[in-house]
Write a structure and sequence with these properties.
Elements: E1 3-9, H1 22-25, H2 30-45, E2 53-58, H3 65-78, E3 83-87, H4 95-98, H5 107-111, H6 117-120, E4 122-123, E5 129-132, H7 141-145, H8 148-160, E6 163-167, H9 176-181, E7 186-192, H10 198-210, E8 215-224, E9 231-237
Parallel strand pairs: 2-6, 2-7, 3-5, 3-6, 7-8
Antiparallel strand pairs: 1-9, 4-5, 8-9
Length: about 240
């Protein structure tokens, strides 16, 4: 089992969500290097059948899944991969905030037939990185995500981009992550240190595995350093 350590400034020191994109703003920092290691480790998980589409989720809200998606995607784009983020958290959208983009139209509009795939893709301002935001918040997220149209969206994304990352809602509360996970190469689970208890984590992993989702790894996030440095340490673990 491999471990990668990431240092990131505490959120109190950051003025906007865009400033949390450490890989973009401080590419030579230890944080950015650690995200590059994370990117590399993911590429080595299946050397004969590389991952091209994954979901990132968590057990409960506020564990850092969306920020993990954003920074990891930037790291991949910096590696000259054409990357697409799809914000499939149709309950609490976040990705458009990191890139200061509008969210008037997006995935939900594509899934209801109001918008074509290409019309929903937005440039983030970062080379080779694009985003499909959530669009309007629907009353039936699970039904939309389990639809044939969602499969078509994933297929289209895989055709046009080198790597697709999907931000999904937390696992315990709703079924969205498990639904999407079956359509992808695997799911990365973000876990907040001292925030998610063991029972909740076990419930999340059990729920994903019962849905026949390939859990490609877990991310231990928000682990404080007791040296007064004002940083948090993030440990990334990869398992079978």
């Amino acid at each position: 089992m491999e471990e990668v350590t990431i240092l990131a400034k505490s959120r109190q020191d950051l003025k906007t969500r865009h400033e949390e994109l450490i890989v973009e703003h401080s590419p030579k920092s230890p944080v950015s290097e650690s995200y590059r290691n994370l990117r590399t480790n993911l590429s080595f998980l299946r050397p004969d059948d590389p991952l091209t589409k994954i979901a990132v989720t968590s057990s409960i809200p506020k564990e850092g899944k969306s920020l993990t998606v954003a920074n990891l995607a930037i790291s991949m784009a910096h590696n000259e991969q054409e990357v697409l983020i799809i914000d499939a958290d149709l309950r609490k959208p976040m990705q458009h905030k990191f890139y200061d983009l509008p969210n008037y139209e997006g995935l939900s509009n594509v899934l209801t037939g109001e918008l074509e795939f290409d019309q929903a893709v937005q440039e983030t301002g970062i080379d080779r990185l694009n985003l499909i935001s959530t669009g309007f918040i629907p009353p039936n997220p699970a039904e939309l995500l389990s639809s044939h149209r969602m499969e078509e969206v994933i297929e289209k994304a895989e055709e046009e981009f080198d790597f697709v990352m999907i931000d999904t809602p937390p696992v315990v509360a709703v079924t969205d992550a498990a639904i999407l996970g079956t359509k992808l190469d695997g799911v990365l689970l973000v876990v907040a240190s001292h925030q998610t208890d063991r029972g909740m984590l076990e419930k999340s992993t059990d729920k994903l595995r019962k849905a026949n989702v390939d859990l490609i790894g877990t991310v231990l996030n928000k682990h404080p350093v007791g040296d007064g440095s004002g940083y948090d340490t993030y440990y990334y673990y990869y398992g079978d």
